[in-house]
Amino acid sequence: MIIAVDFDGTIVEEAYPAIGKPVPFAIEVLKRLQEEEHHQLVLWTVREGKLLEDAVQYCRGRGIEFYAINSLFPGEVDFEISRKIAADVFIDDRSIGGLPDWGLIYRMITKNETWETIFAMQNELPKGKKGFFKKLFT
After folding, report:
1. pTM of the predicted model, to two decimals?
2. Which of 64, 96, 98, 133 satisfies CB 3.0 to 4.6 Å to 122 for a cystine?
3. Class of the 2-99 domain?
């Protein structure tokens, strides 16, 4: 599966043009998706030039090597402006509903769960666990 991942606000907290603090579990989940699940990760960000290289080095220093960067595949012709790429999944803090917890992201990808199945589970949880989901989705 090809997974396009944003950087600012998704892997690190929003602090553009600086690199923000790490978003909890982002790197760990990305490493598992890459190493254990064998998905191809594409860094898909508005960063360019030195700022892009900083983001790539930040991830590389933490064990993430992207299959491609701002492109669909390595060596793709560089365009002056970003364009859409074909990916199976996009992980981005700017999506409708915002960025889910990285644990949920991992479950959604590896277990093919959807928001619908996660919401349905809310009614099947033992007493006392529903509050977590209620808080999560309100």
Report:
1. 0.78
2. 133
3. alpha beta
